[in-house]
Design goal:
The protein is of the alpha+beta class and 764 residues long. It contains 23 helices and 20 strands. The protein has a 5-stranded mixed β-sheet, covered by helices on one side. It has a 5-stranded antiparallel β-sheet with strand order 5-4-18-17-16. Strands 6-11 form a two-stranded antiparallel ribbon. Helix 1 (12-26) runs parallel beside helix 4 (118-131) and helix 3 packs across helix 11.
Amino acid sequence: MPKKRSGGGLSPTQQAAKFLGVSVLAGAVLAGIALPAVGALGLAAKGSVESFDELPVNLKTPPLSQRTKILDANGGLIASVYSRDRTVVDLKDISPYMQKAIVAIEDARFYQHGAVDLKGVLRALNRNAQSGGVAEGASTLTQQYVKNVFVEEAGDDATKVAQATQQTIGRKIKELKYAIQVEEELGKKKILENYLNITFFGQQAYGVEAAAERYFSKSAKDLQLQEAALLAGIVQSPSRYDPINDEAEATRRRNIVLQRMADLGDISQADADKAKETPLGLKVSKPKNGCITAVKGGGFFCDYVRKVFQTDPVFGKTKEERAKIWNQGGLTIRTTMDPQAQKSVQRSVKEHVYQKDDVATAATIVEPGTGKILAMGQSRPYGNEVKKNETVLNLSADLNMGGGAGYQPGSTFKPIVAAAALEGGMAPTQVYSSPYEMEYPSPVQECDGKVWNEKGVKLTNENESEVGPYDMKEATAKSVNTYFVQMISEIGICPVTTMAKKMGVERADGGELAQAPSIALGTMEMSPLTMAAGYATFASRGMYCTPVAIESVTQKVGGKTRSLEVPKSTCRRAMSETTADTINTLLKGVVEDGTGTEAGLGSRPSAGKTGTTDERYAAWFVGYTPNMAGAVWVGDPAHKRKMQGISIGGVWHEKVFGGEVPGPIWRDMMTGALDGKEVLPFNLVDIPDRKQDKGRDDDDDKGDDNGNGNGNGNGGLIGGLTDGGITGGADGGTDGGTFPSPSFSIPEGWWQGQTNGNGNGGRG
């Protein structure tokens, strides 16, 4: 009598001999009776031995693709994403009813035969010969498992899937040899476990755990008899026996499984009859795949994490390597998203800007000193773009991270100009004449040694009442355009673009910042995330940290879990602490008695800046406390609707200003995000108020209200721009003359990087 192994079945040698014997008798029919054509039999018998010997010895079993869980910073589930919805479980976590049901209906002699069931083959051969077609198959459960491995390895490649399932003699021979190997190496229990985890149960559910969740909203270990029988019956034809779409056919199939179990003695006839009378009892859970299912409005954060995984080399050197890991799944990704901050952002966004509005809003919060993205939300939800005002475009992110080409930040860029000037040695008491209107001074130094030289281009302040002279504190609080243009004309364009890059403030489309004085007014398109991270530099006293969204990643492969390396924030000093503290002092004044008073946080120290682009295509508020920095943008993503004569969030606005709409959004989202957090002070500096008289200040050679001119003999340009310069200074500055009153206007579309030629670009 042949000796059987402990796991059941014959030895590999005996199984191989059995295979060859059956091949001679039945040719291709032995493998599952899938080729009814009689002419194929001789061909199979003739070439089977050679083909069998030439096959590789080892079956490569790829790790099963599983769902990936994206979690917030506290471990709460944001969303599940997967190429195949599967959760691998051990056999002990699968109901005994399920184990018996699948064996009963798919391979009743599973524990008695080896890789090939000779009796089953002969029985099927006989039935198919009588019917003249394929009435019965003879593939063992082990062979079915091997076929599923081929399908899994093919992934989503339609061509490879077709090759893995094609009914050819060569594939059947290959399937058989590997089935013999699997029987030898794994044993019956492990084969059954693997089979139940890999097989498809319809409705996007791969594996019994996902199937139990899909049809009954429970775990596989909790399946009852009638439920297990239903799932076992689906496997043969998931579309035909789909209980959701054809309850009658699924019930009939379930009852066949129950009767088969009774016939085999797995259950009593009484239990089978009772179960047959039971309703299907479906409790269907809809497939929850992708960022569209994210909770807490986290769809865009979820999508940003996906983009990070697909683009960051830390997850693989090539795009293909990264995609393979992502599609493999089984990942647990803990993100930086703070659920309290995220909830607050979504609540504020929804309250102030309606989904149906002509314009949208996007808001992002970043943690200073770490670069952690704490929240990301917008008024137009993540969803099918066919639906009204739903989108998959992440309005907070750069183009390469799922966003658009960005939006002009307007006057929120001015503090960067001030930081560059301060870092270059300018005093915060610097005064400029700051007329209501003026020409862009030229020439102005660029980075490459060239000069910007455009004459006859005019700009104005927001209001005719904004007429200098102003010092830096007043000009920042009132967001005086001409002041900051005079400033960039003095220090040059290069220090400003260099400072912007140090702060991570770059164009959303990846292009270079334009070498033009108009950059002082925020004419380069940027994203809310970029602006929030940039302002976080001020909050952390001059340290810029690159934004990060992922804390940790683990991946379950087989029965093992491994940790993956994740992108780290890189921090660098962008400016001195003194410069940052000075900016903090200036911007604190904006929310206390400047254009941003509606964004104030009461007793909690805060700082920030408003921004409204010319023609009002975009409005901003970007601000911070020492522990959080946030940016809010409001506008039309398509850049077509001007925010004049418009209803936003049920409130009518003749003209939209940065402090009027984005400011309150920022205030409310930050209030909720910071609730319960430590109240931290800024390190402020003393900035003397501007002297209103014409008194002399020999320590200031910049050309302010003391009449010193430029101090270096170049009074012509700078002296003429400042309020002073009427007479030569004691330090040798020459008379800069009074400031001219130009009468020409800005040509439409003049500023680089600007959409639709939006005039001045930056407003308060």
